[in-house]
């Protein structure tokens, strides 16, 4: 699934993942900042967070791989009547720990939860009412919960991140939330104030279900790892050409292998030396190597956004990323070699892949 600022495209391939067929646009001229391939049921369900200038922010779903779509009978994802706010975009869709649970992260910064597979959504009220919320700021992309990581076995525990507010966690099924930012640097704050309790501009967090206490984080200036589920964070940026970027992806079968896409931290916001490279660590961030063999360009002056890189779950996983120039690249050998799967789409905001 490839979500863009003007609709959604769906690509399919066989297990070799060399040739791809794409259909689209689905939800034409609507912003699709989030999508999800939910494989927990008898058949896969596709979900897309679409923002329509006429209908508002909707979660549409398909049980036939995009042939047909339905949306909630209750209408757009919306705040309760007593909340003076409107959902502008849905930045994240994540499958919950329990069957039928789907979480949606929105702009402005809130999380909504569905217990019926995406038919209806209710506000996580304790997070919205958190005393820190009025002090959260908006990054250049807006204020949004862009990362939602349900614990793989504990349905009472969830980790989320917002730009700009930092990482927050609940261990009581959303009844209370606490910041988890110890060691994360806010490089844009004055010296002596760069390690606040909250207010960091986190770009993306990822973790592996087999080792949920370990998470990896791409910050606005910084790449980090925690081995104690967010109690403390340690820098793993040494060896990268830049500590600025957006996506962070964990290998589906190896919690020590991670991927990121570093960008220049200056105004250009494109890769260092304008070379499109995915960077991989096989030792939890202790060392890094660049991956670019094949079709990745050496003159690449565009960015890859926070949710525009993903891996599938094949035995030898495929890795995919989309860029703001409307192209999507894929690797069927976990980043060793690359080819362009589709070009000339609108601005790519999210990429999701699954083996079905």
UniProtKB/TrEMBL annotation:
Highest taxon above the source species: Bacteria
GO BP: xyloglucan metabolic process
CDD domains to which the protein is assigned, alphabetical: Sialidase_non-viral (cd15482)
Classification via InterPro entries: WD40/YVTN_repeat-like_dom_sf, Xyloglucanase_GH74
SUPFAM superfamilies in alphabetical order: Oligoxyloglucan reducing end-specific cellobiohydrolase
Annotated protein name in UniProt: Exo-alpha-sialidase
Organism: Nocardioides acrostichi
């Amino acid at each position: 699934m490839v979500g863009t600022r003007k609709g959604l495209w769906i690509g399919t391939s066989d297990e070799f993942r060399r040739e791809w067929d794409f259909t689209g646009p689905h939800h034409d001229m609507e912003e699709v900042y989030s999508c999800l391939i939910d494989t927990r049921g008898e058949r896969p369900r596709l979900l897309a967070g679409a923002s329509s200038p006429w209908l508002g922010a909707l979660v549409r779903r398909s049980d036939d791989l995009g042939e047909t779509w339905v949306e909630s009978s209750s209408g757009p994802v919306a705040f309760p009547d007593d909340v003076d706010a409107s959902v502008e975009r849905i930045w994240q869709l994540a499958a919950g720990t329990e069957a039928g649970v789907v979480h949606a992260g929105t702009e402005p910064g809130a999380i909504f939860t569905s217990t019926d597979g995406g038919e209806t959504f209710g506000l996580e009220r304790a997070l919205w009412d958190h005393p820190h919320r009025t002090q959260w700021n908006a990054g250049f992309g807006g204020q949004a919960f862009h990362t939602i990581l349900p614990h793989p076995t504990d349905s009472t525990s969830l980790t989320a991140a917002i730009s700009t507010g930092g990482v927050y966690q609940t261990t009581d099924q959303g009844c209370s939330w606490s910041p988890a930012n110890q060691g994360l640097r806010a490089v844009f704050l004055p010296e002596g104030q760069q390690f606040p309790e909250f207010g960091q501009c986190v770009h993306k967090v990822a973790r592996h279900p087999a080792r949920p206490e370990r998470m990896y984080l791409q910050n606005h200036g910084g790449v980090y790892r925690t081995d104690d589920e967010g109690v403390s964070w340690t820098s793993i940026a040494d060896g990268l050409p830049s500590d600025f970027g957006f996506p962070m992806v964990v290998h589906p079968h190896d919690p020590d292998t991670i991927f990121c896409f570093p960008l220049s931290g200056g105004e250009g916001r494109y890769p260092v030396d304008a070379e499109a490279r995915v960077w991989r660590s096989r030792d939890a961030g202790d060392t890094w190597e660049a991956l670019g063999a094949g079709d990745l360009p050496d003159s690449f002056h565009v960015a890859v956004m926070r949710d525009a890189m993903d891996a599938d779950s094949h035995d030898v996983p495929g890795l995919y990323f989309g860029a703001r120039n409307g192209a999507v690249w894929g690797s069927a050998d976990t980043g060793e070699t690359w080819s362009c799967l589709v070009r000339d789409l609108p601005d790519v905001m999210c990429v999701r892949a699954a083996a079905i």
